[in-house]
């Protein structure tokens, strides 16, 4: 593999690309180059078929090279490749915004488009601060995130995020404080939502006592943490966060960049867990990963606050947005992607198959003493691997590399292996990836 990959790319070419969230030195010694993707499989430079065990980066729930999306994109490029995002519009953004509202909880019906998950988080946080200022409460500027949370790579994202490795290099961020994560000892190998852990929401009261609600703009959490290794909320936890936010006049933002549009076997994490936040950030699955796009759904009252205080109607109600907000090609991809999710009944499919998925994933328990926890929800699972000395990330890396060699792409991050297959995955494919993973972990033991 290695030599062929190297024979197609020169060292200078490999060196020229500073790759994102990648061990560049290791990768460039042993490049893993993907050349094509179709359905649930990638093809690599050697022509090998590789099962996509994480739907890209939680992006491609519909699988790859979906004809309806490809055709919509091709048609859009021919018709309207770009139109200015500011002061002028094109039809598809309005159609897509309305489509997105159909996936959102009732009342979250005002959609702001961005170019990525990180921009969606930035947008939600900026709007939260500006909203309170518009309400005459300009001191409400601090944010509360959660340990192990991931909210993107921007300055605001690392500030509210709670994965230490993503924060340590970057110095001062936005003023943010963190709730504890919800991986409570004793809940290992819980299926779905753990029974214990709800009490960790009470820490929000301590943070409010410390900083005062008059200084706090918003709490931001992923309803289910993806990047930290599929941390499912304990029963009643999100509901309790909602109650505390309501009692203290603090906005609650759900970061649903991973969980929106089907991954949970529900329209959103909010829908799956029965809690309605004030804003939902989304990206990834909205275009099935085909074109970068993100969005934030806001409660109408937030939108109305800006409209009501916007001054003359030709003036901007909020000086915020991106050159690629509501990009016409992304909107075309989004309409086709959401249309296919509905047409193929994929949310129902994930919901119906999630018990089988849960069973399959939990069969790994006992495959090796290195597996210290397994968590799952919808079509997602996280497997914690015991650290190798003081190197918790090493074994997951070795396991993922061995899986790649066997023809399976799985994600490794910190001390976990993460799985999130396409929504259309067959049981035989689930069996195949789980068996291969069990075997691989045993071999690494
Ligand atoms: C919950 C969450 N928020 C934000 C982001 C950042 O999205 P992007 O990488 O598109 O900027 C991610 C990416 O994985 C995510 O999982």
TrEMBL record:
Keyword Transferase attributed: yes
* SUPFAM superfamilies assigned: PLP-dependent transferases
- Cofactor(s) demanded: pyridoxal 5'-phosphate
One of the protein's GO biological processes: biotin biosynthetic process
Short name of any one Pfam family annotated for the protein? Aminotran_3
Print the keywords alphabetically. Answer: Aminotransferase, Pyridoxal phosphate, Pyruvate, Transferase
Q: Which InterPro entries match?
A: Aminotrans_3 (IPR005814), Aminotrans_3_PPA_site (IPR049704), PyrdxlP-dep_Trfase (IPR015424), PyrdxlP-dep_Trfase_major (IPR015421), PyrdxlP-dep_Trfase_small (IPR015422)
Q: Name one GO molecular function term.
A: pyridoxal phosphate binding
Q: Looking at the keywords, is Transferase present?
A: yes
Family of this protein:
Belongs to the class-III pyridoxal-phosphate-dependent aminotransferase family.
Protein name, as recorded: Beta alanine--pyruvate aminotransferase
């Amino acid at each position: 593999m290695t030599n062929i990959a190297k024979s197609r790319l020169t060292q200078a070419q490999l060196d020229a690309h500073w790759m994102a969230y990648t061990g560049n030195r290791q990768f460039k010694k042993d490049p893993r180059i993907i050349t094509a993707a179709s359905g649930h499989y990638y093809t690599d430079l050697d022509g090998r078929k590789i099962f996509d065990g994480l739907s890209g980066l939680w992006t491609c729930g519909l699988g790859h090279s979906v004809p309806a999306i490809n055709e919509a994109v091709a048609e859009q490029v021919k018709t309207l490749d770009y139109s200015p995002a500011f002061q002028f519009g094109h039809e598809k953004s309005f159609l897509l915004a309305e489509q997105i509202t159909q996936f959102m909880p009732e009342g979250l019906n005002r959609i702001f488009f961005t170019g990525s998950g990180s921009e969606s988080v930035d947008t939600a946080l900026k709007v939260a601060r500006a909203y309170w200022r518009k309400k005459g409460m300009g001191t409400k500027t601090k944010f509360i995130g959660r340990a192990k949370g991931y909210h993107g790579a921007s300055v605001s994202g690392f500030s509210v995020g709670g994965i230490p490795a993503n924060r340590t290099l970057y110095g001062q961020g936005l003023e943010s404080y963190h709730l504890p994560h919800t991986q409570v000892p004793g809940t290992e190998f819980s299926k779905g939502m753990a029974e214990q852990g709800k009490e960790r929401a009470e820490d929000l009261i301590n943070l409010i006592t410390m900083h005062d609600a008059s200084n706090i703009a918003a709490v931001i959490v992923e309803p289910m943490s993806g990047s930290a290794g599929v941390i499912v909320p304990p029963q009643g936890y999100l509901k309790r966060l909602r109650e505390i936010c309501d009692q203290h006049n603090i906005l609650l933002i759900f970061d649903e960049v991973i969980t929106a549009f089907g991954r949970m076997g529900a329209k959103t994490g909010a829908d799956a867990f029965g809690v309605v936040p004030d804003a939902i950030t989304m990206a990834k699955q909205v275009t099935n990963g085909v074109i970068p796009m993100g969005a934030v759904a806001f409660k109408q009252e937030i939108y109305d606050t800006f409209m009501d205080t916007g001054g003359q109607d030709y003036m901007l109600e909020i000086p915020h947005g991106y050159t690629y907000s509501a990009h016409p090609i992304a909107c075309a991809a989004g309409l086709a992607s959401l249309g296919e999710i509905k047409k193929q009944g994929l949310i129902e499919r994930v919901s119906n198959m999630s018990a089988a998925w849960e069973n399959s994933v939990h069969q790994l328990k006992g495959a090796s003493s290195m597996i210290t926890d397994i968590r799952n929800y919808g079509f997602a699972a996280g497997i914690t691997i015991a650290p190798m000395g003081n190197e918790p990330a090493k074994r997951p890396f070795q396991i993922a590399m061995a899986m790649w060699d066997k023809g399976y792409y799985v994600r490794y991050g910190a001390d976990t292996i993460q799985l999130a297959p396409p929504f259309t995955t067959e049981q035989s494919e689930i069996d195949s990836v789980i068996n291969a993973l069990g075997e691989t972990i045993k071999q690494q033991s």
